[in-house]
Amino acid sequence: MSKQDMESLIESFSKLRLVVVGDVMLDRFIWGNVTRISPEAPVPVVEVTRESVYPGGAANVARNITPFGSKVELIGLVGSDSEGEVLAGALEENHIGIDHLLVERNFSTITKTRVVAQHQQVVRIDREKKQAPTDGARTLILNQLLDVIGEVDGIIIEDYGKGLIDDALVRDIVDIAVAGDVIVTVDPNPKNQIDWKGVSTVKPNRSEAFHEAGMVDRGGHLPPLEDDDLMAVGKRLLKRWESQYVLITLGEQGMILFSDGGEPYHIPTRAREVFDVSGAGDTAIAVFTMALCAGANALTAADLSNRASGVVVGKLGTAEITKADLLKAL
């Protein structure tokens, strides 16, 4: 595809409407400087200069969609707590639809706090409790999806393994999507063994892919198309999940796309410099799905997704990709 065609494709993202279903989180960053070690223990003393909050988890996937003008609705659970209120504010600032976000009184908003000094993460503090949705919440989630399915181009299932996504919910989501002729893509979690049959694409990273395939990763130093173990993993996952595509992200080696009936397609990384890999997978699934929903073939969607990932790893924090970033990367 020519650069002009790519630019036209990106411009067409503004006509899309997507839904992200998954584990919603709040990402909090504490930024500062380190000039000394604590006299109390051998740990750095971080002098805080500022703090910032961003939508995290499934919400970060949604955050990577709105800069392109696409409309996105977020379906997930947050707590009736102060962190949930902060997250709701961050979602509204990023133009993410929250009308279908469920506030549960007995649920605690998942929060990840990262302390960063001199461009390096010093520590991460997680506040979370793995908790499955109640039957009532599950019914509400599906009803929320039914409310919007007639106007939706694609659904992204973002599984962080925090309890929301399970086989029963996935089956119901896929049934609704199939009936509405809507594309479904998935960012899986290896701790959560889900039957993804019926979805368009599953996007694990390399370690997740080997884990899901039940194989030992013996390296990864070979060129991907010459890596027999990786080739076996991709084929095994295609057969197991019966999806159209399996897109495996490979870090500094880029991505590889496996398709039903096609040859594996490797896309080398476009990253020039890596500062922070936080959220790179979220960017990859967001851009890949938008491209598919806009009518691109999977190879073009994977290439565009790879370029977008190369941009965000060059930023600090849970970064988003913008339309200007992606156009420049072309």
Please describe what this structure looks like:
By secondary structure, the protein is of the alpha/beta class. It has one domain (3-24, 66-108, 131-329): UDP-N-acetylmuramoyl-L-alanine:D-glutamate ligase, CATH 3.40.1190. It has ten helices and 14 strands. The protein has helices at residues 3-11, 58-63, 82-93, 135-148, 167-179, 206-213, 228-241, 280-293, 298-312, 323-329, and strands spanning 17-22, 24-37, 44-57, 71-75, 77-79, 102-104, 110-117, 120-127, 154-158, 183-187, 201-202, 245-249, 255-259, 265-267. The strands form three sheets. It has an eight-stranded mixed sheet with strand order 4-1-9-10-11-12-13-14, with helices on both faces. It has a four-stranded mixed sheet with strand order 3-2-7-8. A two-stranded parallel ribbon has the order 5-6. A hairpin with a 6-residue loop joins β2 (24-37) and β3. α4 runs parallel beside α5, α6 (206-213) crosses α7 (228-241) and α8 (280-293) packs antiparallel against α9 (298-312). Mean pLDDT is 91; it is low at 274-278.
Q: Could you state the order of secondary-structure elements as H and E?
A: HEEEHEEHEEEHEHEEHHEEEHHH
In round numbers, the mean pLDDT is 91
Low-confidence stretches: 274-278
Question: Which CATH architecture?
Answer: 3-Layer(aba) Sandwich
Overall morphology:
globular
Cross-sheet strand order for the largest sheet: 4-1-9-10-11-12-13-14
Number of strands: 14
Give the name of the CATH superfamily: Ribokinase
- Largest sheet at a glance? 8 strands, mixed
Question: How much of the sequence is in beta strands?
Answer: 25-35%
**Which structural category fits the helices and strands?**
alpha/beta
End-to-end Cα distance, whole Å, is: 11 Å
Number of domains: 1
The CATH C-level class name: Alpha Beta
The helix content, as a percent range, equals 25-40%
